[in-house]
Structures
1.
Amino acid sequence: MASEAEILDELRRLRARVPQLTGALAAGVNGLVLAQDTPGVEPERVAALTVTALGVAVRMADATGQGDFRELIVRGVYGYVATYAAGRGAVLTVLAQDRVHVGRLLLEGRRAGARIGELVDAEAAAAAEATAQATATATATSASEEQADGAPAKAPPKTTTARTRTARAPRTTTGTNARTTTES
């Protein structure tokens, strides 16, 4: 994943831009804390609850045809908990006082989520590229060793691409199968 220092720097810049924030953390979609600035709060617990809420939010957005998850806002008596998508592999959760300007919270949370997403996704892409190159090198080395032994070379393993969801079109009803009964 992305450098903890870079993500932590972004969390601190977010807290500077929105002074009513009481904490912020970035977590992977697997629930592991990437970086946190949450004094007085257990970051592992918040990350685990964030991933649980994320699962429900993703299903809710999908079931209602609203598209991919973007953000989740919870308002309590003492303040807000806001969770934002941060690229493909992470989420950003911020804690804010009740007196926070909600528009500012949304705007700055979205910006920080996008920046953290760029960091995490770039690191994941670099790791995937390094893995692919290592696999290709290992496959080429074993194929050349087998050819030197006189055995036929094996084909490289098939790679699969990750499946992603696309937004559903809203359901519409047509009048062709509708039944109406009227008695005069």
2.
Amino acid sequence: MSNPAFMSVCIVGDRRQMSSLYQKMLRLQNRKKSLIENGFYYPKRWLGNLVARLGGDYKEVYCRGTWDDLSLNSKRLYFFTESAWNAPFEILRLIKKVYPGLEIYFSAEGEGWDFYLTNDAEGRFFTSKFELDMPPENDYYDTIEEVAELVGNYIGRRIEPSKEAVYAAIEEWDDENEDIEAYINLKEFEVVSLDEV
């Protein structure tokens, strides 16, 4: 899948509606054959099957991907999507239309498209506000203080714990550093509403 988009979804609210959605998705992924024939690697978990099960038209709702990690407990329904080009926000809006008693939270990122979006402004379910890609690994962080400390340790000087100071330090370090094996990429999750995406 070229330029994949990844999205974690957490749904809370009316327990009957949550259970109904979970049962639909569970039945789809446990079928012997996919509801609708498709060319996806996990054809039974193709998002188009869910669109159809919710009464939508998979040719009109963006559903180019699959879901995984479906789980339900007494407080929330969770699943993860991997899709091509863009996160399947239209499916979340369809779920909200079919199940108006549910609140839908997401955290989405697009590899190669450089988008990092969430509608969880309070960090109820998705606390990470930053993604820091820097040797030796790529990870997620909740606060700019954590990021400032890690970047400061990497470049060898203390950085004030503010976004402006961290971005300025990274830019200055990038300008001075010629080593392509050494890099710092910092991305911030933008808070948006489901209606904006």
3.
Amino acid sequence: MTIPIYEQAIGPEFFRLQPELQEYFSLAPGSGHYGVGEGVFDVVGCGQRWLRPLLRLTAGEEAFFPEYGEAVRFRIENHAHLDPYGRSSLTARREIYFPGRTRLFHDTTSALGTPGPARLVDYLGKYRRLATDLNLSVTPEGRLRGISRSSRLFLGNVRLRLPALLDAKAYAEQWWDATEGEHGRHRIQVKVIQPQIGLVLVYAGSFDYRLEPYADANTAPGFLPRHAQPVRWERRR
């Protein structure tokens, strides 16, 4: 079993994370298990009404969506696997249950072998046409923080790096809140901000998390259930 990609990226700092976060981010290819989180977003979606028609045009990518809501239930599955190019990866499949409509949000984070800590690249949407570099750190309280750096669009054979003025940055923080619920819960907060238009997307809430075994006790490192697979994979970085 390989080292989990988040431990590859932040090295010994990984063990300064809260124990519950270490468990959450410890999935590795070949473990025979996947993670399931179920909870409620206190807030989720695009708060700017004028921007929603534009996001509706991209909703088919299953990376952004035009809805906005409060107290919205969601479910996430985390699958650790090797992607078709042999890269250690973590694929997340989210179902967000807006009233009258369920939205899907997919991404795959892959570890790229480099001298020193691994470089993490996040590929978004069911076509994986948008990629962004992730910069991770551990707070003094043991929370995990992540900031996206530079983004690229893959349109056919074209690789288009977004200029800084157009690129949206994602700011994420995840932690364990021992005061939440009866036994404590995971909490997450993510904001996607574009410098010219402001807040594009936000989601923040809490959830319970558990590990489930794959059917037939599948421990193949490259295994990813069909419903979690993207329409296409992207090899470019």
4.
Amino acid sequence: MGWDNSLLLWKQTERAAFNRLFEEFEQFLRQKDNSKIQKSEDISRLSENMSFPQFDIYNEILNNIKKRPGMYLGANSITRLDMVLRGYSLARKEVSVPPTEPEREFEGFQSWVEEKYGINSGQSWSKIIFFYSVNEPEALQKFFELFEEYLNRNKSLEVDANCG
């Protein structure tokens, strides 16, 4: 027996059954909306109760990768490092975890690398560094040198701004 015959059993006429169909459909939509609202509230409550650790990939993990890149990346590769950082950032965005201060600071690295090399090609920082390197391992080493220079440059700018 189909849903149409079920409705006809409840009501004596096709018109009454037709109207009942829309009543049932409206009730279904309300329940569905209520379950979405409940699910959203549950997620909000869960995220309020969950404290995401202020994990800092740019200081904690990069230092380890610098020491043993093969262990963390599988190879001494700036391309793999770029993919790890992109994946990490995307994962945090997907679960609505706001960026940490080091993550916000890293966002300026791209434009800094472009300015340093005089390139405005739309290529990623990793591709620019790799272009000016002999191979992936050298590019990875160069990344760490440039990143440290970038961080120190920003710190010296902050000191200058506070002194001036």
